[in-house]
Write a structure and sequence with these properties.
This protein has helices spanning about 5-15, 35-45, 70-75, 80-85, 95-105, 110-120, 120-125, 140-145, 165-170, 185-190, 195-200, 200-220, 225-235, 240-245, 295-305, 305-315, and strands spanning about 150-155, 160-165, 255-260, 265-275, 280-290. The protein is α+β, with helices and mostly antiparallel strands.
Length: about 325
């Protein structure tokens, strides 16, 4: 067995020497919160039909998709002029009660409601973006190293991957081979062909990543690194542009991913996401297989191969 240090220790130290998410290009301009608020409300209104909310549909005269502003204002119990100002991006004096009413009228999910509040009332949610890279405590790095058969990693703002264990490298690829600024889920999913092949439901993974970035953008529109990432992906990926324009947001703390691994074939893994109490912008993500399943046996094989699996998985051709 090759005697090299555990990946998460080495990679954590290397990562802490450079800022996560820095792309080497000029920082992007800040995201326009007013435009974000306007487009979010328009896209949410456009997806509702009158019959969805119990209104009569006089369809032949409708010139817009979804509900009219007048109809949405009626449902929310506000004046048309008031709602129009809000949809034009002016949320300066809007109350939490009005936002709640609009969220109910638009049938927003919990994540969408939170996103709307972040966009409309920035003073209550605005956090100063630190120039320092996010840090993961040594004890957390040591903890994920103890997961001998469980892929685990810590992800931060902008979907930056901060630390990971040997099993993550065996399953997802050896991230130590990437420059620290490129260890980012959104960049890998949209720009690296091997990840399009790794995820069986790549479209769902791509949608999840854009939704994550949208939530982040709602909380941190002044983050130049996030703006640069969005700009880069918009230029390089047509799929990203399409998904970004949809303004969809959602939070996904658990679920199932199906992978096509170059060494062990099909893997069906359940994932769990745990926000860290001392820094809610950091999350630990773990993957496990159903006991006794073929995927559990495949993980056991990858664990037994150790660093050999990491090297072979990184160099194996993906058909």
């Amino acid at each position: 067995m090759d005697e090299q240090p555990a990946p998460s220790h080495e990679h954590s130290q290397e990562h802490s020497q450079g800022s996560a998410g820095e792309s080497g290009q000029e920082p992007g301009r800040r995201l326009d919160r007013r435009a974000e608020l306007s487009e979010f409300l328009r896209t949410r209104r456009a997806r509702l039909k009158p019959e969805d909310v119990g209104l009569p549909d006089f369809g032949r005269h409708r010139r817009v998709p979804g509900l009219r502003r007048e109809e949405l204002a009626q449902l929310a119990g506000v004046s048309v002029a008031y709602y129009t100002r809000l949809e034009q991006g002016n949320g300066r004096n809007v109350s939490a009660e009005v936002l709640d009413a609009i969220a109910r009228a638009l049938r927003l999910t919990g994540a969408e409601h939170a996103h709307l509040t972040h966009l409309a009332k920035p003073k209550q949610h605005k956090k100063k973006v630190s120039a320092r890279p996010q840090q993961v405590r040594v004890a957390m790095r040591q903890l994920i190293d103890t997961f001998d058969s469980v892929p685990a990693y810590v992800v931060g703002r902008r979907s930056d991957i901060l630390v990971w264990n040997r099993m993550s490298a065996a399953v997802f690829g050896d991230w130590s081979q990437l420059p620290a600024p490129e260890r980012n889920w959104a960049r890998m999913v949209f720009l690296l062909p091997e990840y399009r092949e790794l995820f069986v439901e790549w479209e769902q993974k791509a949608s999840d990543m854009v939704s994550f970035l949208r939530m982040d953008a709602g909380c941190h529109p002044d983050d130049p690194r996030l703006s640069a990432l969005v700009g880069e992906l918009s230029v390089k990926s047509e799929e990203f542009r399409r998904l970004w324009a949809a303004h969809d947001v959602k939070e996904k703390s658990h679920g199932v991913k199906r992978l096509h691994h170059p060494l062990v074939g099909e893997l069906t893994l359940a994932f769990e996401t745990f926000k860290l109490v001392d820094d809610e912008e950091l999350s630990m993500v773990t993957y496990h297989a159903e006991p006794g399943s073929a995927s559990a046996e495949a993980l056991r094989l990858l664990a037994s191969w150790g660093t050999d699996a990491v090297r072979a998985g990184s160099s194996a051709p993906r058909n």
